[in-house]
Amino acid sequence: MSGLVESGRSALRSALERLGRGWGRVQERRPLSHDLLESDDAYLVVFDAPGVRGEDVDVTFLDRTVEVSLERFRDFYDGHDLVFPGRGVSLSGSVDLPRDADVTPEGANATLTRNGTLHVEIPKRGGSGDVDVVEEDD
Predict the structure, then answer these.
(1) Single pTM value for the model
(2) pLDDT of 29
(3) Which InterPro entries does the entry mention (predicted)?
(4) Of 54, 58, 110, 117, most Cβ neighbours within 10 A?
(5) What residues have CB less than 8 Å from 29, skipping those under 6 apart?
(6) pLDDT tens readout for residues 32-73
(7) Which of 39-43, 105-109, 123-127 has the lowest mean pLDDT?
(8) What stretches of 10-123 adopt beta strand conformation (E)?
């Protein structure tokens, strides 16, 4: 009987793993969730960015479009095996600012917060370029 139980557990673990990997691929194809906010001086785009480090984030601003790509890594935990690999590891998203947005990349900044959001602020008035990413201190 224990052989039957072990076979059932193995089949269940295999099914969960396939399901989890499929769900991770769905997450990688879906754009990152975001909010677009505006003040008198700047636009602020807030992306969901859980589980990433600052060096694993790439932010580019070009022609009123903010593009973000993230690489997440799974931590290993002593004494634990991965059963359901359900989180995507390569995530991306983009946001188009309004057509009438007059913005500049000079002075733009990106901050990765401790609570897992990425704040990209683009000042009003100007052109295109890369944006540096800063990680909040603990």
Answers:
(1) 0.67
(2) 66
(3) A-crystallin/Hsp20_dom, HSP20-like_chaperone
(4) 110
(5) none
(6) 889 999 998 999 999 998 888 888 899 998 888 999 999 887
(7) 123-127
(8) 34-38, 42-48, 57-62, 65-71, 90-96, 109-112, 117-123
Distance of CA 24 to the CA centre of its chain: 13
- Cβ(104)–Cβ(127) below 8 Å: yes
pLDDT of residue 58: 93
Residues belonging to the chain: 138
Q: How far apart are CA 75 and CA 17, in angstroms?
A: 17
- Collapsed DSSP state (helix, strand, coil) of residue 118: strand
Tell the residue number behind the tokens 């790509």, with chain if given. Answer: 69
Structure tokens belonging to residue 127: 């052109």
Is residue 22 pLDDT above 50, yes or no?
yes
Q: What is the torsional sign of CA 117, 122, 124, 128?
A: negative
The closest of 67, 36, 65, 68 to 49, measured between CA atoms, is: 68
| Backbone phi and psi for residue 29, each to the nearest 5 degrees, phi listed first | -85, -25
